[in-house]
Amino acid sequence: MNFRKTFAAFALMLAFLLLLPVARASENDQATKITFDHDVQIPGRVLPAGTYWFVLPYDISQHFLVHIYNSDGTVLITTLLTTSVEREKSTDKTEITFAERDPMQPEAIVTWFYPGRTVGHEFLYSKQEGKELALGNHQTVVVGD
To answer: How far apart are CA 94 and CA 144, in angstroms?
Structure first.
């Protein structure tokens, strides 16, 4: 009888340890579903209004890359280079900073911060675009419920 209880406890603990990495997967890859109600500029292209997934590679040494997927996460739209950027205080929601541009151009995504993090991702634009974006006003938007 004791053997069965010990075996059951061991099996339960093993199952918990096997499921633990799965439970933390979205924290490691910072998968974030974002819906834009207007077109937005990212380095090298414009994303039409719609829903997208922003996801980091699982390998933490490659967190300078951001993958952008379609609304159901099945099609990779692009992979972008980023650099780390810090903020003073974390929030419990996703934050995106946009640079305002000429009225005929869409706002450009400058930074993306995952909830609970003080280190985020600054998107790397070409030298010319970077200068233009640095001159514009920046607006931070909190995303999520």
So the answer is: 7
Q: How many CB atoms lie within 10 A of CB 109?
A: 27
Contact at 8 Å (CB) between 43 and 123?
Answer: yes
Q: Are 125 and 94 in contact (CB under 8 A)?
A: no
Instruction: Answer for the pair 124, 43: CB distance below 8 angstroms, yes or no.
Output: yes
Q: Beta partners for 113?
A: 95
Please give the chain's pLDDT, 145 residues, in tens: 565 545 444 433 433 333 333 333 457 899 999 999 999 999 999 999 999 999 999 888 898 999 999 999 999 999 999 999 999 999 999 999 999 888 888 999 999 999 999 999 999 999 888 877 777 777 776 776 4
**CB–CB of 119/85 below 8 Å?**
yes
C-beta of residue 109 within 8 angstroms of C-beta of residue 25: no
Question: Of 143, 131, 135, which Cα lies nearest the Cα of 97?
Answer: 143
